[in-house]
Write a structure and sequence with these properties.
This is Helix-turn-helix domain-containing protein. Keywords: Activator, Cytoplasm, DNA-binding, Repeat, Rhamnose metabolism, Transcription, Transcription regulation. It holds the Pfam family HTH_18. The protein has about 300 residues and is of the alpha+beta class. The chain has two domains: about 180 residues, Jelly Rolls, CATH 2.60.120; about 55 residues, Orthogonal Bundle (Arc Repressor Mutant, subunit A), CATH 1.10.10. Helices cover about 45% and strands about 15% of the residues. Helix 2 crosses helix 5, helix 3 runs antiparallel to helix 4 and helix 5 runs antiparallel to helix 6. The longest helix has 22 residues. The protein is globular.
């Protein structure tokens, strides 16, 4: 009988103050057993060798390997030969992933979404491999993050989050430069995702996204939907609705103007899709954040 997979809890590793990032060094990594987490990890191999085991497959590890482990994915390390690594534990729901232009980077989507989803199919060959200079730079960033988390002086939350996002951005840039045959397929899909993130307010067709990916229609759709759990057009619609929510919370523009700003050409269609995704009408959502008088009766048009 297989032993149950241990689930590592946030309360076991995260500080009582609730800050959503922890640095854990394994120097060396000791045998641990198959486990999953309530949190996510960025794993950077700093030395030695071993095998990364997922419960189904196993993959060789060496210095410079960098990858992301989603919380629900069981894994372990075996055949340890002085394996050294750094884990950056984080609560995926608490990090500012929409900060700036991070989601406009193909390497971000490849590293944090696509590679974990396709790890088994690609035999882990699409993981990021840092060269010695890149590894040294990443370790330097982690040391600055670790110092803030250790000292926890006034302002550490801002400084630590800044260091974390700098590390994420650096790794995303490294992946974007890592365009060899083993990672090219993921980056082609990531290019299409980044295009959506940048040009969401413009007309975007499925045919154009397929052209950007340089993949067959069937392969592009299968890869995109497997990784993102949405079709490309539905992903675009959800992004537009999210951007509309941002405006609705702060803008004095009319709902029709906001709908046009985020790429909808029909405000009634926008209102229907908004209600489907958010659960309330755009007007009711806006009323939560702005001083708007309540409406009476049934809303016939978004700007009534």
């Amino acid at each position: 009988m297989n032993e149950p997979i241990r689930v590592l809890r946030k309360s076991q590793f995260f500080h009582p103050d609730g800050f959503p990032i922890v640095v854990a060094r394994r120097d060396p990594q000791e045998p641990f057993g198959l486990h999953s987490h309530e949190f996510w990890e960025i794993v950077i191999i700093t030395g030695g060798s071993g095998r990364h085991v997922t419960g189904v497959d196993s993959y060789e590890l060496a210095a410079g390997d960098a990858f992301v482990i989603g919380g629900a994915r069981p894994h372990d390390y075996q055949d340890l030969e002085g394996l050294r690594l750094i884990n950056i534990l984080f609560d995926n729901d608490e990090l500012p992933w929409n900060l700036g232009d991070l989601k406009e980077m193909p390497g971000y989507h490849a590293l944090f979404t696509l590679e974990p989803a396709f790890r088994q199919r690609h035999r882990f060959d699409s993981r990021l491999r840092l060269n010695p200079m890149e590894l040294a730079f990443a370790i330097e960033k982690i040391e600055l993050l670790e110092r803030e988390l250790d000292e926890r002086t006034a302002g550490f939350r801002v400084m630590a989050m800044t260091q974390m996002m700098q590390l994420v951005t650096f790794l995303a840039r490294c992946y974007d430069r890592f365009r060899d045959p083993r990672s090219q397929g993921l980056l082609e899909v990531a290019d299409a995702i980044a295009h959506i993130e940048i040009h969401y307010a413009e007309p975007i067709t499925l045919d154009h996204l397929i052209q950007i990916s340089n993949m067959s229609r069937r392969n592009f759709l299968r890869t995109f939907e497997t990784a993102m759990e949405d079709s490309p057009i539905q992903y675009l619609i959800r992004l537009r609705i999210r951007k509309a929510c941002e405006q609705l919370r702060v803008s004095k523009k009319s709902i029709t103007e906001i709908a046009m700003d985020v790429g909808f050409s029909d405000s009634n269609y926008f209102s229907r899709k908004f209600r489907d995704i958010v659960g309330v009408s755009p007007r009711d959502y806006k009323r939560r954040y702005l001083d708007m008088p309540p409406t009476s009766g049934t809303e016939a048009d978004p700007d009534d």
